[in-house]
Amino acid sequence: MKGYKAKRRIGSKVVMDVYVTTEKRGIKKFTQRPEKEQKKREENKAESVTCVSHGSISVIGRRRVMEDAVKLSVGEIQGYDFFAVYDGHGGAQVANACRDRMHQLVVKEVEERTRGGKGPEWEKVMAACFAKMDEEVSGEDYQGGAEDVDMKTMGSTAVVVLVGRDVVVVANCGDSRVVLCRGGTAVALSSDHKPDRPDERERVETAGGTVINWNGSRVLGVLATSRSIGDQHLKPYVISKPEVSVTERTKSDTYLSFLSYLFLFFLDEVLVFSFHYALKLYPFELDRLM
Questions:
Q1: pLDDT beneath 70: ranges in the chain
Q2: Where in the sequence is the domain holding 83, given as residue range(s)?
Q3: Where, by residue number, does the polypeptide cross the bilayer (predicted)?
Q4: Mean pLDDT over the full length of the chain
Q5: Domain count of the chain?
Q6: SS3 of 185, please?
Q7: How far is it, in rounded angstroms, from Cα 230 to Cα 228?
Q8: Is residue 100 part of a domain?
């Protein structure tokens, strides 16, 4: 357990930003080559719904393998753009599987549930997709390209966001985070699933598990998040069911930031927003930083 904790401390970090505004001020500065980006979109026949700019950065830390993954997909889901961050642990296979498959599951689920002109019930859609993803990586024959590795000890958090013209849909499983910049203020759109969160602790203990304080609260003294995809060795205490929220967009919404746990461990989300908001107010300074 001690080695496991050390790896969590020095692991990789991911941050992704999505600009959802239609304002022109400062936004063009973030798009390095608009002509090239537009040409690529036309070639892929994928049109972004609302996001004028988006990007991500990953830092591997001291590990030999990047265990986190990011997925950005525009135009695949009718009326929505798809963005997700997967914070892997124990190995990269589960996070990579989520990156490659989750958006496909969402596309299929939305298509099936909207036949007949019905609007999607997002909580049911996301719960079904996360359950299917968990089932795929938990199969006996699934190795995800890993050799001599026990997949039962691998897992990943998952925070999935669909950005539509009128709403932002968030499905969160784990301790990665999504925050919205609304009028210069950080608004949390997800809630971390930590073992010491009162309702999560109660759920774990009701299932027969325990929460042990081992350099922080952990399920069975092992995992520092109470929900994830994978982690078969910790079921049924660690579950894959996401919490889902639907937030109506406003004219003051500027951008979304997706932050993995270890990024937040080193840098507070308020500082992230202060930096980005300063760039929006003073876009002429951006060229000096790029």
A1: 1-52, 61, 63, 141-149, 260-290
A2: 11-190+242-283
A3: 258-279
A4: 76
A5: 1
A6: strand
A7: 6
A8: yes
